[in-house]
Amino acid sequence: MLRYQILPVTDFQQNCSLVWCDQTNEAALIDPGGEIPRLLAAVQQRGLTLKAIWQTHAHIDHAGATGQLAREQGLPIVGPHPDDQFWIDGLPQQSQMFGFPPAEHFTPTRWLQDGDTVQLGQETVQVRHCPGHTPGHVVFYSPTAQRAFVGDVLFAGSIGRTDFPGGNFEQLIASITQRLWPLGDETVFIPGHGPESSFGAERRSNPFVSDAAVRRG
């Protein structure tokens, strides 16, 4: 089974997720935005072996520590989708703009496409390309755990911003309703900020993407 621990990092309280296969103790960090010593301490505390970095998208609060962590620990960077290349290239400028520690740009070891899978120990995790917040945003979905790590696509009671370069509101709504809802109402999602929720709960009450809101739209 895929297990996880949420580790909010940076002043933006971005939910970095430590995920691991409980059969092999092989682990990955999803969106290491900062606070590398704290992240590595969590890995060590659980007796895990860190194997990879998985990246949903390349905004600074999600990717600020990715380049340094990969370089220092010899880790592959998996994701995001190639359409986020311009955000990766701009990480040093993003860090200055938002007052973050200097961030390194990086080249992903593996770009991801919709329908890809990534392996962690004995666990196979599915990839959904969900553009709208950024053009290259991806979501990681574990069918066995019924968990989706959605970055900044969807939040409890809200959705991702679309006013940054490359954002697109209509595209974001389509990503949520066409690529996340089919994963099932019972699926719990871990957003990039704030508390967990389920797709079913958001379909009932989210003012942006509830079934009622989508019908009105």
UniProtKB/TrEMBL annotation:
Annotated spans, Disordered: 194-217
UniProt keyword annotation of Metal-binding present: yes
Molecular function GO labels: hydrolase activity; metal ion binding
Keyword Zinc: yes
Location of the Metallo-beta-lactamase domain: 13-193
Keywords: Hydrolase, Metal-binding, Zinc
Xref: SUPFAM superfamilies: Metallo-hydrolase/oxidoreductase (SSF56281)
Cofactor: Zn(2+)
CDD domains: YcbL-like_MBL-fold
Protein name according to UniProt: MBL fold metallo-hydrolase
Organism placement in taxonomy: Bacteria, Pseudomonadati, Pseudomonadota, Betaproteobacteria, Burkholderiales
